Amino acid sequence: MSSDNHDKGALRSGELARLAGVSADTLRHYERKGVLPAPRRTANGYRRYPPEALKRVQLVRRALMMGFTLDELATILKAHERGGAPCRAVRRLAAEKLAQVETRLQELLALRAELRATLRDWDVRLDQTQPGERARLLEALAAREVSKAGPAHRRPFNVSRKKERRNEK
Fold first, then answer.
1. CA atoms of 130 and 117, how far apart (whole Å)
2. Is residue 143 part of a domain?
């Protein structure tokens, strides 16, 4: 069998990356994490992915957008490749992702209300402040936070939770 017949439809890393909208580094990362099977190598060491690798990368990207982690996907895909039916586990994980989104949505709605109230307060302060005079907006924010201390479990908007960081890995 010639190399051309064996390579029919195969994609080089750059081609697959371009078609999938990712970098070649991302493809290598997906391989290391076990969500993309290692491709065949040419004699000179170049990766040659089968045509179905594009669908796999698209699946992985869509699942990541839905909140799945690469580690979760690797476990699911390995079970599937071994002939298993991880459907219930996939459903359970998706339900967990939805619960996380619902929680985050509530946090964002609370943040929006807080920002609106802060801006109203700051507008009043600015209206009462002469041009060139300091309105001490940030100081007012700190005082507002102390007097309006919410639940102890609340976190600042820009601080990531451990689970959220895992989604990026």
1. 22
2. yes
Is residue 27 situated within a structural domain?
yes
Q: In the chain, how many domains are there?
A: 2
Query: Could you tell me if residue 153 is inside a domain?
Result: yes
Residue corresponding to tokens 């040419």: 42
Expressed as residue numbers, the domain containing 138 is 105-168
Give the predicted TM-score (pTM) of the model.
0.70
Q: How far apart are CA 7 and CA 48, in angstroms?
A: 8
In tens digits, the chain (169 residues) has pLDDT values of: 344 445 678 999 999 999 999 999 999 999 999 999 999 999 998 999 999 999 999 999 999 999 999 999 999 999 999 999 999 999 999 999 999 999 999 999 999 999 999 999 999 999 999 999 999 999 988 887 655 544 444 445 444 444 444 444 4
